Amino acid sequence: MCVVIRAIQFQKWSKHPNVKWMKSGEMQADALRDIRTTQSALSVYLTCGEVSFSRIVAALAAKRDKLRQFHYVDFDRKFLESKGFSLTNTPEHGTTFDETVNAVHHDIVDLTPQTLYDLAQCFLDRISKERLEVGVESVACFINCGIDSRHIDEGSLKPKLVKQLRAYR
Amino acid sequence: MSESVYVVVPVLAEAWITCGELSADCLNEIHSADKTILGELGLVDRKQYEHNTLQLNITRNHDQYARETDNSTAIVHVLIDAQFFKQNEYNYNIFENSIRIKQLTALKLLDIVREVRRRANMD
């Protein structure tokens, strides 16, 4: 099974209890900003073959300025395709420091405002059933494993992140 | 709000004036932060606007885009009847020459996108 992974900012999807005007199940407009498209396409990564979930998390989290929790949504590729979304393998759009992860970069293509909203609704449904997050300690472990196995070059990482990662060695 | 008042939404013409499907990229032009449309949208009186006697005070990132690309002609100012926001129960603050639309759900934002598209293809 190929699983589609997309990192998200959880606070843009969750309803804060102080936000009284939003009804339960409604999506805040900011969520659409969290899945910003380029040329009508949304960037995602697929776990396939040798590329595991943890390797994708490591590659994406290694681009950050500092260590923090990793929130994401995941879907079976077939589920998204059954909803009418088309995925195209676009390794050239992969932007991580791990070339093997870049090779499994895909775009969900041909998105209109309406289909992006439909996709966002799938995200919201998924997130409301299960809080999908990787804790800080696990994120550190994944990145450190990536560095040790030379999938990720430590020299490419931000200094603050490197310092934080060393604390988990 | 008076019936002759319009909300000015600056957008890149190429993306919005189309007989085909809109690209999801259009949502990059009208998007929200903290559930509020980014920036203040200009408010104008239609007649003043048409006679070009009112200086628009638009603080959207499109102005920056225009400066960076020297491509101001790519921007069109779509006029949305201010009553659209009133009748559809949007929440907003009105300032002297601008409006800030807030408390936006994704659906309400999508309705604005549809309205901008409709107006962009009319004017």
Using brief descriptors, characterize the structure shown.
A: 169 residues; alpha+beta; globular; B: 123 residues; 5-stranded antiparallel beta sheet; 7 strands; 27% strand
Task: Record the SSE blueprint.
The complex is a heterodimer of chains A (169) and B (123).
Chain A lengths: L2 E5 L22 H5 L7 E6 L5 H9 L8 E7 H6 L3 E4 L9 H5 L1 E5 L3 H17 L3 E2 L1 H13 L10 H8 L3
Antiparallel strand pairs in A: 1-2, 1-3, 2-5, 3-6, 4-5
Helix pairs in contact in A: 2-6
Chain B lengths: L4 E8 H4 L15 E2 L2 E2 L3 E5 H5 L10 H9 L5 E7 H6 L3 E4 L3 E5 L3 H15 L3
Antiparallel strand pairs in B: 1-4, 1-5, 2-3, 4-7, 6-7
Task: Provide a concise account of the structure shown.
Chain A has 169 residues and is an alpha+beta fold. Chain A is built from 7 helices and 6 strands; from the N terminus they run E-H-E-H-E-H-E-H-E-H-E-H-H. In chain B, the strands form 2 sheets. In chain B, strands 5-1-4-7-6 form a 5-stranded antiparallel sheet. In chain B, strands 2-3 form a two-stranded antiparallel ribbon.
